[in-house]
Design goal:
The structure holds two protein chains of two kinds. Chain A is α/β, with parallel strands linked by helices. In chain A, 56% of the residues lie in helices and 14% in strands. By secondary structure, chain B is mostly helical. The two termini of chain B are 25 Å apart. Classes of the chains: A alpha/beta, B mainly alpha.
């Protein structure tokens, strides 16, 4: 893909019509646009993003005021601004023109857009296929991302940008198709067509279906959240880097102390929170075993009564009833055979009555044995609970329950433990809040940047923890869903109306899994391609023994390319070049991925794509050397022509001699000549000739920019 | 064969015929409707397709 020309009409400070033709020569890939501050370099960058997408780069000021002020003051309603872009892709010419009037410029919906592909009217979709909107921030890279300290001082690259690489890769590979497929199949599973008509409904099966739908919804929500996380953490890292840059202005030792103390206190809060959960869980555990201590009391009482009966001699009986009955019958003692008189028989009859009680007592003895066994078997449960509560008590600094404490007492200890744990948790939180409020080392009245830094770090850590636990969570939810579907299928098997719908849901569910695997694969293997591309690009720009490692979250870490993989610190120029390599890698991958997508060879090619500087999408880099000290500029400037087949560079003329170093690689050069009341009269020298750069003119209000070809 | 290709081939070959049919239809429809905003009709289409396949397979098509 190549940019051919850009035409501006009354665009921001560019009064009237201006045209830029871009260099398309392979050996002179650079188009240089030299302009002083305020000339409209960023406005020029945004001309691209506006014409292509109706959008602006982050930080672009007053984006509702697009029509040149001079033009709109002459005609406040009907003055028009327009931008026309010609580009070429795969031998096909594209033309995009976007216009807005002074009256409608604040409302993007009222822009007039004319798109043509090979001279024939086309649609936004045709543009999006070539230059996916998610890559806007890559191809048109604003100065703020270079010039903020966050880029140079982030711990990991990607902290200085909110660029979502995984989303970019998916866009280039038409991965959105797989995402759409997954989402649409998810919707299809919930379609009313797959719910049996009212007359056929059965409660049991409906309950199973509802449960399945719940598990499906939970899984979909988790998957959706997972897809958002890479973008969220990219933004969070950018905010962290900005906060760090501000906090770095303060005493570094103090900042380090604050960070360490903050980390310690957050860990204490987390620990206290876990303890609260544990004691509450212990309470629930006891509640579930509450029958035990009711049973324990009743059983203890029963056993004690039986023990008393035994000690009283009532049980067991000393003589069997049958012997006594025979004695009464025979009127003769069965043991010694002596005759019994009436008195003797009455005593035997009295004894017989107690023996009958004894039969019951025997059953009582048997029961006592059973009860004792019951107590014994649940003693281990009581001991387990006692052990856990003793441990919790020790953690909370409380007296633990005695080893043989009954459950009722253990429960009372747990109730106290809940109060203590809650109180400790609240105490940790208020101490942390107080710590954050303290202004030691920070001037009174200023916002506290250290707290902001710690909050941002906490946010990044939280998101990272969520990313790390996401695969396991999703795997668990998938299992639940499968189980629920299996249950639904089983219950609906005997009713054909339900069974058909369950089979349909199963088909859709399996198809969705296929597309989910495809999406994940694009990301996983795309990451490999990206890692290879960034390494190739970096080594094209600078000869250093570094290896760039791209993590699973697309964080980028330079390491020494030896066995140790030791992380290294980079100089200013090395860091900016790494950022440029990051952009260049995506721009080099872009045409390869576009071809793979066009030929539907995602599964075949992704993961083994190789890139080169001869093929790649163009990038517009606004002021790439602005954050650099003079001594580092040369490295970066000399590397830029190695990046891509076409590079457009709006820059200031701060160091003309440095740009002259690569004059042989510059195919086109322009000055964005600024005229205003505030400007000074300045000229720049290019290739031995002098050109006006900025002009002071009291009669020119507002400032005016003119594009002058060199 | 690339690792990715092999992985997806193995996954694809493990799918029942009915699922393969739906995957093909979904892929075609998604390419055609890539930039469409309102996707409710697509979801309904897929649901009805799956129901048709389910009626035809009658529980025989088990992987």
């Amino acid at each position: 893909m190549k940019l051919v020309s850009l035409k501006l009409r009354n665009w921001r400070s560019y009064f009237g019509e201006h045209e830029i033709a871009f260099s398309t020569e392979a050996d002179r890939p650079v188009t240089l646009l030299l302009g002083p501050n305020g000339a409209g370099k960023t406005a020029l960058l945004n001309a691209f993003t506006w014409v292509l997408y109706g959008e602006f780069t982050e930080g672009f000021k007053v984006s509702s005021s697009l029509v040149n002020l001079e033009a709109s003051s002459a005609d406040p309603v009907a003055a028009i601004t327009s931008v026309e872009l010609n580009f070429e892709n795969e031998g096909v010419e594209y033309y995009v023109k976007r216009s807005a009037s002074a009256a409608t410029q604040a409302d993007r919906r009222k822009d007039i857009v004319d798109i043509r592909k090979a001279g024939v009217p086309a649609s936004q979709a045709d543009i999006d296929r070539v230059l996916p909107p998610s890559l806007k921030d890559l191809f048109f890279f604003p100065a703020e991302s270079f010039s903020t300290a966050s880029v140079l001082k982030g711990e990991q690259l990607g902290e200085g940008t909110s660029f979502d690489i995984s989303k970019a890769i998916r866009s280039l590979l038409s991965g959105d198709i797989y995402k759409n497929a997954s989402d649409d199949l998810d919707q299809a599973i919930r379609s009313n067509s797959l719910i049996p008509p009212q007359r056929n409904r059965q409660d049991t099966i409906d309950k199973a279906r509802t449960h399945f739908e719940q598990t499906q919804a939970e899984l979909s929500a988790a998957e959706e959240r997972r897809d958002l996380l890479s973008g969220l953490i990219a933004n969070a890292r950018e905010e962290l880097a900005v906060a760090k840059a501000v906090a770095d202005k303060f005493d570094q030792v103090k900042v380090a102390e604050w960070e360490a103390r903050s980390e310690e206190m957050r860990t204490q809060i987390e620990r206290a929170s876990q303890l609260v959960k544990k004691v509450n869980s212990a309470y629930l555990d006891i509640a579930r075993t509450v029958h035990l201590y009711f049973a324990q009391d009743a059983v203890d009482l029963a056993v004690s009564k039986l023990n008393t009966a035994e000690q009283s001699g009532l049980i067991p009986p000393r003589i069997d009833a049958s012997v006594l009955e025979k004695t009464i019958r025979d009127e003769k003692c069965t043991l010694c055979l002596s005759d019994l008189d009436a008195d003797g028989i009455a005593r035997v009859e009295n004894l017989l009555a107690h023996v009958a009680d004894g039969r019951v007592a025997v059953r009582g003895l048997e029961t006592r044995t059973l009860l004792r066994e019951y107590l014994k078997s649940h003693e281990s449960e009581r001991q387990r609970i006692q052990g856990e509560v003793a441990e919790l008590s020790n953690e909370l600094g409380m007296d633990p329950p005695a080893h043989d404490a009954p459950l009722r007492y253990i429960q009372a200890v747990v109730r106290s433990a809940i109060s203590v744990a809650d109180s400790k948790h609240n105490e940790c939180i208020s101490q942390y809040e107080e710590f954050k409020r303290s202004r030691e080392g920070i001037a009174t009245g200023e916002p506290n940047p250290i707290n902001k830094l710690m909050d941002k770090k906490s946010k990044v850590d939280t998101l990272q923890a969520e990313i790390d636990s996401s695969p396991e969570k999703i795997a668990r939810l998938k299992q639940s869903k499968e189980k629920a579907l299996a249950d639904y299928k089983k219950k609906s098997k005997n009713d054909e109306v339900y069974a058909q719908r369950t089979r349909a849901i199963e088909i859709l569910s399996k198809a969705k899994e296929y597309f989910d695997e495809a999406r994940q694969g694009l990301e996983d293997y795309g990451r490999l391609d990206f890692q290879n591309a960034i390494n190739a690009t970096y080594s094209d720009l600078i000869a250093k023994p570094y290896q760039i490692v791209v993590g699973e979250d697309f964080s980028i870490v330079p390491v020494l390319s030896d066995q140790t993989e030791q992380e290294i610190g980079l100089s200013q120029s090395e860091t900016v070049l790494l950022l440029i390599s990051f952009l260049g890698a995506m721009a080099r991958l872009a045409p390869q991925y576009a071809e793979i997508s066009r030929n539907k060879k995602q599964f075949v090619e992704v993961g083994k794509v190789s890139t080169s500087k001869e093929a790649g999408f163009p990038v517009v880099l606004d002021a790439p050397t602005s954050p650099l000290d003079d001594e580092y500029e040369v490295d970066v400037v000399q590397a830029l022509p190695q990046l891509l087949p076409q590079v457009v560079l709006p820059v200031s003329a701060k160091s003309m001699e440095v740009w002259e170093l690569i004059s042989a690689k510059i195919g086109r050069a322009y000055i964005l000549e600024l005229t205003s009341q505030e400007s000074s009269d300045r000229a720049v020298t290019w290739q031995g000739k002098s050109y006006p750069y900025s002009i002071c003119d009291d009669s020119v209000v507002p400032a005016r920019t003119k594009v002058v070809a060199l | 064969m690339s690792d990715f290709q092999e992985k997806m081939k193995d996954l694809g070959s493990s799918l029942p015929d009915s699922v393969k049919q739906i995957v093909r239809k979904v892929l075609e429809a998604e390419h055609e409707n890539r930039f469409r905003d309102d996707r409710r009709q697509l979801a309904e289409t897929f649901a009805n397709e799956a129901l048709k396949l389910a009626r035809n397979t009658g529980g025989e098509d088990e992987s």
